[in-house]
Each structure stands twice: as C-alpha cells, then as structure tokens.
Design goal:
It holds the Pfam family N_methyl. It is built from three helices and seven strands, in the order αααβββββββ. The protein has about 160 residues and is an alpha+beta fold. It has one domain. It is elongated.
Length: about 160
C-alpha cells in the first residue's frame, strides 16, 4: 500500500506568493523614490544657500577694507574671509563670482551632474543655478526630471 502525502503540511512560499509580494514592494518603492530624491536635492540646495550666504558676508567684509568687491573666490580665500573648503561642502555645485565691481557683485552656484565615469557634466537630471548679490538676496531655482507619475517638473530653491 502506498501512502499519499497530500495531507502533509507544506513549508515555504509558492512562486506566485513571492511574485505578488515583490510586485507590491516595487509599487511602494516607485512611489517613495521621487519624494526621497526631492528631499535629498533640497538638502543639497540648503547647503548651497549657506555657502552663498558665506560668500555674501565675505564680500561685505572685503568691500569694507577695499571699497570694491572681490573679483573671484580665490581673492576672498587669500584674504582669510572665506574657507577654501566651500566647494567640498557642496560638491554637486560649482561656486563662482560671475560679476564684481565697486558697487555690485553677483556670485552663483551652478548645479553639476556627473557622467558614468564620475566626471562633472552639465546635462543631468537636476539642472539650474542659484545666485546671491550685494543685497544678500538668494535667488534661482534648480529643476529636476519630469515625474512619470504626475508629469510635473520638480523645482528646488534654498528654503531660507
């Protein structure tokens, strides 16, 4: 007589159960990823805003001593008014002084993107420029890729 194992208790999961579970997880992750990306980009924008604020303050001190604004960042660094590591704190942005004379200046932080080899390029998912002038007002916007869910283009600006 041959015994049937139909009544034996099964352990483990079937392939269909695993596929359904993975599909649910994939859907949940696809909804969370855009908001996570936006939150990370906002934190980078806030760091850039702080860097531009530092440049603005350094320019004011430089102007008090020289009655003109510094033509480049290296001049502010050499005068010990600006930390030379400003580019390290916000590696995704390139800081520069776009224009400076006796009465005005404009500094900018341009969003970098990176290619597959890690080289800096300016054609990527997030693009844009933040600026600050002699009044200390920070402006500009960085735009991200269009969302496949809402078809909207996210925009980031420093939040202070």
């Amino acid at each position: 007589m041959i015994k049937s194992n139909r009544s034996a208790k099964r352990n483990g999961f079937s392939l269909i159960e695993v596929v359904v579970t993975m599909t649910i997880i994939a859907v949940l992750v696809s909804f969370a990823t855009p908001s996570m990306s936006r939150a990370m980009e906002q934190s980078h924008a806030d760091l850039v805003g702080a860097g531009l604020r530092s440049i603005s303050v350094a320019q004011r001190f430089y102007w008090l001593d020289n009655r003109t604004y510094a033509p480049n960042l290296q001049t502010l660094i050499d005068a010990d008014l600006l930390d030379g590591n400003i580019t390290v704190t916000a590696a995704r942005y390139e800081f520069s002084i776009a224009a400076a004379d006796d009465t005005t200046f404009q500094a900018q932080a341009r969003r970098r993107s990176f290619d597959d080899e890690g080289n800096s390029v300016y054609t990527g998912a997030w693009q844009g420029t933040f600026t600050v002038d002699q009044t200390g007002v920070i402006g500009g916007v960085v735009q991200g890729p269009e969302s496949p869910i809402s078809n909207a283009t996210p925009q980031i600006s420093p939040s202070f």
